[in-house]
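Below is how a single chain appears once it has passed through the pipeline. First comes the sequence as given, then the structure the pipeline wrote out for it. We keep one example in the README because the format questions we get most often are answered faster by looking than by reading.
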Amino acid sequence: MKEKALVLLSGGMDSSVCLLIAKKEYKFDIFALTFDYGQRHRIEVEKAKEIAKKYSAKKHFIIELPLSKIGGSALTDKNIEVPEGKINRNEIPLTYVPARNIIFLSYATAIAEVNEIYNIFIGINYIDYSGYPDCRPEFIEAFEKMINLGTKSGVEGKKFKIYTPLIKMTKKEIVLKGKELGLDFKLTHSCYNPDENGNPCGKCDSCLLRLKGFKEAGIEPVL
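Resulting structure:
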């Protein structure tokens, strides 16, 4: 019987590559987890459903979280404009969602514990990324230690491991890895500010990083 992995799947390119790494390189049975948190780019939830189905996730958990009621981010508060163009990597951008990965990984831990899944994958990146503090290696190390101290499973010796296979990869490397693993890039969505039909803006930081990855990889861009 295969080991199981819970993969946080946003519907974006990075999380999709992460899912395929867990499935094809680690050979885990895949359980996907997606959050509908009031994000303006909610189309990514629909994309996540398609990706989970195409790549044969054993189960796809979709959790509704009203982070839009908290606000404080251009992704959840429509009164805050999504910045266009390249951002200052030395500043935390307006697209930072307060405590998002803390919240997401907490839910992931609870779901994993109930379903006896001890491998958790998250497609965060610390090289070509938007400057979020919850995408750093030290955050993941601290969180993994915390959940193994604060869960029944951890106390009883069934330790959780958080995998971040993309954390030190460039967007070019992520694109190339996706191609190698057979990812259908057209299924993925990365834009922070799509139009009402879900078409990407091509101007936000996420779109620009995605385009950069395709360009540097020498692959026709799929926005």
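The longest helix spans residues 100-114.

See the next section for the split statistics.
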